[in-house]
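Appendix B. Raw example, untouched.
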Amino acid sequence: MTVDAAPLPDTEVICVSCEACCCRLEVMLITDTGVPDMFIEIDKWGGRSMARLDDGWCSALDRNTMSCMIYEKRPRICRELEMGEYECLSQRAANL
Protein backbone atom coordinates (compact mmCIF):
# COMPACT_ATOMS: atom_id res chain seq x y z
CA MET A 1 0.00 0.00 0.00
CA THR A 2 1.29 3.44 -0.91
CA VAL A 3 0.24 6.67 0.74
CA ASP A 4 0.84 9.94 -1.06
CA ALA A 5 2.05 12.71 1.21
CA ALA A 6 2.19 16.37 0.36
CA PRO A 7 5.67 17.89 0.48
CA LEU A 8 6.24 20.08 3.50
CA PRO A 9 8.17 23.34 3.63
CA ASP A 10 11.84 23.06 4.53
CA THR A 11 11.76 25.97 6.96
CA GLU A 12 13.13 25.34 10.41
CA VAL A 13 10.59 26.02 13.13
CA ILE A 14 11.83 27.55 16.37
CA CYS A 15 9.96 29.44 19.09
CA VAL A 16 10.45 32.86 17.50
CA SER A 17 9.18 31.65 14.10
CA CYS A 18 6.46 29.30 15.35
CA GLU A 19 3.36 31.46 14.63
CA ALA A 20 1.23 29.05 16.74
CA CYS A 21 -0.55 27.39 13.80
CA CYS A 22 -1.45 24.41 16.01
CA CYS A 23 -3.50 26.78 18.19
CA ARG A 24 -6.16 26.73 15.48
CA LEU A 25 -6.82 23.01 15.93
CA GLU A 26 -9.76 21.68 17.94
CA VAL A 27 -8.47 20.21 21.21
CA MET A 28 -10.76 17.74 22.95
CA LEU A 29 -10.18 17.29 26.68
CA ILE A 30 -10.56 13.61 27.51
CA THR A 31 -9.15 13.54 31.04
CA ASP A 32 -8.79 16.07 33.83
CA THR A 33 -6.03 18.30 32.56
CA GLY A 34 -5.72 21.10 35.08
CA VAL A 35 -6.77 23.58 32.38
CA PRO A 36 -8.53 26.52 34.08
CA ASP A 37 -12.31 26.46 33.54
CA MET A 38 -12.28 29.83 31.76
CA PHE A 39 -10.50 28.14 28.83
CA ILE A 40 -12.88 25.16 28.56
CA GLU A 41 -16.06 24.84 26.48
CA ILE A 42 -18.64 22.15 27.21
CA ASP A 43 -20.88 20.98 24.37
CA LYS A 44 -24.52 19.91 24.70
CA TRP A 45 -23.44 16.29 25.26
CA GLY A 46 -21.02 17.17 28.06
CA GLY A 47 -17.88 16.91 25.93
CA ARG A 48 -15.10 19.26 26.94
CA SER A 49 -12.70 21.05 24.61
CA MET A 50 -10.40 24.03 24.67
CA ALA A 51 -12.41 27.18 24.07
CA ARG A 52 -11.78 28.98 20.81
CA LEU A 53 -12.48 32.60 20.07
CA ASP A 54 -14.57 33.84 17.16
CA ASP A 55 -11.52 33.95 14.89
CA GLY A 56 -10.81 30.24 15.52
CA TRP A 57 -7.70 30.67 17.69
CA CYS A 58 -7.41 28.96 21.08
CA SER A 59 -8.58 31.21 23.90
CA ALA A 60 -5.40 30.41 25.89
CA LEU A 61 -3.18 31.94 23.20
CA ASP A 62 -1.72 35.33 24.15
CA ARG A 63 -2.16 37.32 20.95
CA ASN A 64 0.67 39.73 21.75
CA THR A 65 3.35 37.09 22.25
CA MET A 66 1.70 34.20 20.34
CA SER A 67 2.51 31.94 23.28
CA CYS A 68 0.32 29.79 25.51
CA MET A 69 -0.91 31.51 28.68
CA ILE A 70 -1.38 28.12 30.38
CA TYR A 71 1.77 26.45 29.08
CA GLU A 72 2.46 24.56 32.33
CA LYS A 73 -1.16 23.32 32.43
CA ARG A 74 -1.74 22.82 28.70
CA PRO A 75 -3.62 19.69 27.56
CA ARG A 76 -1.73 16.48 26.88
CA ILE A 77 -2.29 16.66 23.12
CA CYS A 78 -0.65 20.09 23.11
CA ARG A 79 2.31 18.64 25.02
CA GLU A 80 2.65 15.78 22.54
CA LEU A 81 2.62 17.88 19.38
CA GLU A 82 6.30 18.56 18.75
CA MET A 83 7.50 21.73 17.10
CA GLY A 84 9.00 21.03 13.69
CA GLU A 85 7.58 17.50 13.40
CA TYR A 86 5.20 16.36 10.62
CA GLU A 87 1.93 17.47 12.31
CA CYS A 88 3.40 20.87 13.09
CA LEU A 89 4.73 21.39 9.57
CA SER A 90 1.48 20.23 7.95
CA GLN A 91 -0.53 22.74 10.02
CA ARG A 92 1.92 25.51 9.10
CA ALA A 93 1.60 24.59 5.42
CA ALA A 94 -2.20 24.69 5.65
CA ASN A 95 -2.40 27.97 7.58
CA LEU A 96 0.44 30.20 6.40
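End of appendix B.
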